[in-house]
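Lab meeting, item 3. Inverse folding demo.
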């Protein structure tokens, strides 16, 4: 599940709110063991997602680097190439 959490720092354009929330949701899902929480746990689950998203947003905003921002398209192509080398062509 956590393999779906992508690096969000140092990209141009910067990570969107949706990307931060999606990564936070995946993190909370992994920690809790719930893909979808029960009604009894929904409030705690949603609160945790919001808190993790806030922390992630603050972390990303406070990090500094001298490296050039990465290009999302280039990084996506690298990931596709790695996947193809690892798993081969699907067909």
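The presenter then showed the designed sequence:
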């Amino acid at each position: 599940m956590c393999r779906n959490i992508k690096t969000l720092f140092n990209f141009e354009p910067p990570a969107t709110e949706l990307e931060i929330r999606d990564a936070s949701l995946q993190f909370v899902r992994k920690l809790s063991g719930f893909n979808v929480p029960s009604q009894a746990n929904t409030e705690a689950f949603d609160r945790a997602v919001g808190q993790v998203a806030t922390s992630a947003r603050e972390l990303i905003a406070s990090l500094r680097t001298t490296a050039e921002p990465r290009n999302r398209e280039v990084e996506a192509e690298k990931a596709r190439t790695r996947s193809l080398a690892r798993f081969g062509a699907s067909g």
